[in-house]
Specification:
By secondary structure, the chain is of the alpha/beta class. The protein has seven helices and ten strands. A hairpin with a 2-residue loop joins strand 7 and strand 8.
Length: 174
C-alpha cells in the first residue's frame, strides 16, 4: 500500500473514531478498519439480494481479530446496518455480502471460498493466503498494513471496485 494509503486509512479512522486517534492502533483494529472501508468502495450487482442488514461473515481462529471486526457491528454500509456474524468452517455462508477469512487451515479456507464461488461476495483473506484465492488479501509488511486486489475475481462475480480503492492497493491483478 502506498504510504499515503495508510495515512488515508489512519486519517479516516481518526475522523470516524476520535478515541482511536489518542491510543496507539492495534494491528487487528487497523485491519478491521481496512475491511470496513473495502465495503464502502465496492458495488454489488443490481440483482444481488438486498437485506435490511449488510452481513460480514467472519471465519477465523484468531479471537482478537474476530473481536476487532465485531466492533464494526452497527456501522452503516451502502445505507444499511453492518452485521457481523462469526462463522465456523463447516457453517453455511449463505447471506454473506462480505467474507473475512483469517487464521485457519488452508483446507478450511478452500472450503469456504468454494461455498461462495460465483456469488457476489467480497472475500477478504488475511495475508498468507495463496494468490488468487480471495478477491482481496490483507496483510502487514513491516509496520504497514497493505491489501492486494484480484480484479478479475471481483469482476467474475459482478463486483465493481472503485478506482480510488484500486489506487490504494499494493498490487492489483488485472
Amino acid at each position: 500500500m502506498p504510504a499515503f494509503g495508510l495515512r488515508l486509512v489512519c486519517c479516516l479512522l481518526a475522523v470516524a473514531t476520535p478515541a482511536l486517534a489518542v491510543a496507539p492502533l492495534d494491528e487487528n483494529e487497523v485491519k478491521a478498519a481496512v475491511v470496513y472501508h473495502l465495503s464502502l468502495f465496492a458495488d454489488w450487482p443490481s440483482g444481488a439480494p438486498r437485506d435490511k442488514a449488510f452481513t460480514l461473515c467472519v471465519l477465523t481462529d484468531d479471537d482478537n481479530m474476530a473481536e476487532a471486526l465485531g466492533k464494526l457491528s452497527g456501522k452503516t454500509v451502502k445505507g444499511v446496518t453492518l452485521q457481523i456474524q462469526r462463522k465456523r468452517a463447516a457453517q453455511d455462508l449463505g447471506g454473506c455480502r462480505m467474507l473475512y477469512l483469517g487464521k485457519m487451515s488452508e483446507a478450511a479456507r478452500e472450503r469456504a471460498l468454494a461455498q461462495v464461488a460465483g456469488q457476489p461476495v467480497l472475500s477478504v483473506a488475511n495475508g498468507g493466503a495463496a494468490a488468487g484465492t480471495a478477491i482481496v488479501t490483507i496483510g502487514v509488511a513491516g509496520e504497514r498494513v497493505y491489501f492486494d486486489v484480484d480484479l478479475p475475481a471481483a469482476q467474475r462475480v459482478g463486483l465493481r471496485l472503485d478506482a480510488k480503492l484500486l489506487r490504494l492497493a499494493r498490487t492489483v491483478m488485472r
